[in-house]
Hints:
907 residues, mainly alpha
Amino acid sequence: MPPLRPAARCCQAVKGPRDAPLEAVWVTDDVLHRAFQRYLDLPRSNKRSVSSVPGPLYHRKRFGRRQMTELNSFQTLGSLPVWALPNAPDMTNWTWQPPKAELWAQPPMPPVQPSKKTRTWHEEAVEEAARAASKHTEPDMVSREATIRAALRIDFEPQPVLPFIKELARIHEHNYKSADEYSAAFMDVISRVATVTSQGMVTSAGAGEVYFAALYHLQRARRSFPELQVSYLPVMQSAARAIQAAKALDQSFFISAPKFWEKWLELLKTSEINVEATEILAFVMNQLRPRHIRRSSQLLLSVFERYLALWDSCDVHGEPIDWDQTRISEAIHRASIWSGRVDKLVMTVQLDLAGGNTKRAASRLPVIERCVARVQRLTQKVAHLQSNDLQLIELLGTALRDTHPVMHRYLLMRLTSLTGDSSKWSRARYNWMHILARLPNIRTGNFKRLLCIFAHNGAGALTFMELCDLLLVHWTTQQKLNDPHETRRMWHAIRGNDEKSAIAALALAVNKTNKTSQTTAVFWNLWDVLRVRGGQKRLLRQVSLLSHSHKLSSGFLQRLAWTSHDLPVALLLSWILIRQSPTIRDSWWPAFWDKFAGMQLKNWKYPSIDPILIARKMIIVKDEPKTSSREAPDQQVPSRDVERFYDERLNIVELESPQQQLISYTLLANDHQQSIHNRQIQRIKWSLQILCRAQSITDRQALHYVSAFTTLLANKQGHLSARDLATLTSVIMRTLDQGQPGSEQRLKWYLGVIHRHLGTQSCIRLGVILQRRREANWVVWQRHLRQHLTFRGHEAKEAQMVQPTPLAAATKRIPEDDPHLLKLRWLWSKYVKSSSRRRDKWGRRPRRFAAKAGAEAELDEELQSEQFEEFFDKQQQEELQEGLLPRQGAEKESQQRQLAACGGVAQ
Length: 907
């Protein structure tokens, strides 16, 4: 296959963002020449190739192939690809152009000071490391500075950012007296780095190196000054703003080193939870790439687990603003008590140190540390109780919204399992459901599954307000609402302070603020969710309660009834409308109920319909009976006599027991509905026979009436299963497949009618029956051929020459005066593929010598064996019992019965 692009090393700038823009990348002629030589050296494959030269295969469309065009890479001429032909398109005839100077990033370089000896930055780093090793510093610090740290990226250019890295190292080596002095000097360098980065004067690799070194030095300095823990968030906020500003200037600015973002996640795992930290988490997750997600998934899990652990401490329903203020005041009181104890302990330690009792002062330090930790926990709990979770939820939903799908199954399902048991309501599960409802890839099926983490009822169930809030967020994410803010405002206005009618108020708000098609789609979704959590009866009670205070329109209740897909629910909703306004008692009749019952009920709409009456009306003609194109019997019977004959037969059948009406059905004992169903099936069978055997219509009219009758049954009966169709198949087969030319097309056409009205399963059942009958018919034709050759009185040698195989009989010259063998030839060419059309899976023709002769000899022996004949006789009897084959003489017997019923005499 020809190379679609040059070598990989020539396209690195195209695959990943680099410092040079895309317009400055070019490919040399030498690279194209080597790529073309590599293609010519590849071994030729055995696959069938299609020529790109216009010819018989050029414009032909084949199944399973692409459309033939000049630019397809698999079309070749000899060993040359299409793009190497002399008449190649103009898009491949490119010429080399030098890169433009203004496209290259040219940051201002610092002035180079003249020196006697020019040294590289590696030598300077080694000298500084040796100078630092001579000082009395920590052993790990010496090892850190003595070794030259590997760059995060290979294309790291140290010149623009090396002064900042050196300055950060000097700040770390300086002995500051307090954390404030260190933080002031450190943040001064960080602000200058942010200014340079936001102006686009530093490459992405250089910015990654500077900020990685800054976070590393800050993490080391925290060992001496624990107060520097609060400096992590300002540093990361400054870095995030600078990176976003640089990316606004240059879209290719991207720090792709996974170590850099893993360092951010490690710091977020230990920092406090607030809005700023959540914004940084959303920024980091937006910067992660799919290949980094698996690597950093554990860190992401640990960060999200902190949010769930924070929310899991509360079991009060509702938003934090509406919580009980006594818990907040109680936590504040406890925190003040413990902080007072800490102050007393500190004063006691100061007195001990002033008196020279250092041992007693040292023994009190662990107690002070435990008290300080408890004060911090209580203070954090107060802050979380007073905060609003909606900001954190929106930021976390934004962070997860653009995450790659590789991460969803592992991360989302793992965190969902961490929400705990659903026996009691928890703030963690409710907030986590809010986050998941904001994700666009959480469809309704997954959303219903996730709702099951809450109990059906009790203390662990969702309230009406919480369920409606989740539904509103889910519909907003799926873009089902026209104006989500207006819908929420209308919902609060309709509901007021009453939470008992929240679901009904939400449905009414959706109906008022959206179009009819959107409202119907949302109502389908609402009923679907209520079947899982909430229940349909709750919505009915709330609609009934809401009808006392609000005027509910007929269209609103009608849409609710139509989407409920339940007849009792629709009747109750219509009763609510009638109770509200008795004057429009019949507004839904007959249009709504007729369509509702016909389209949505599984039972038959008209169980007492008379299909025989429909068939009689279809074939009534006022003119004289027309001659049929079929072979007419010796004495034609008027159509009214046929109807009277079938009417008498039907009365006889209905007087019999249900078991004798349909042998193929196994009836239940004392099942009145089943017996009605079976009698209706028998009526349909007789109706089809009336349509098929009426002498007053032609073949084309009979075919048209059968299809119209099937359509009418599908509309009026409302439901016909594959089992019902199996009982009608024998009648349909006798009607449409009489072995005459064109019967296959008629069968395919009727199969399309069945598929359109009765579904796929019915077509599958009918197709299986057709296949079995075709096989059985071929056995019958073989037997007819054998009997024909025997009755003609051929000798043994002539019989061996004429009757070796059906293939020889079909391909041998057949006299034109023998209509049976002519029909056999046509059937063979119709149902059996000839040898000239046979192909194996590689497209090769079968071998025509030894294998063919052996197969013909084996088939000859089988045809002449008695076991073979007994086997097919038995199979034919089974097919006759099942009704798949027309019984021999059935038409003649039926004609005799018709004449006998009419008082005639059969000839």
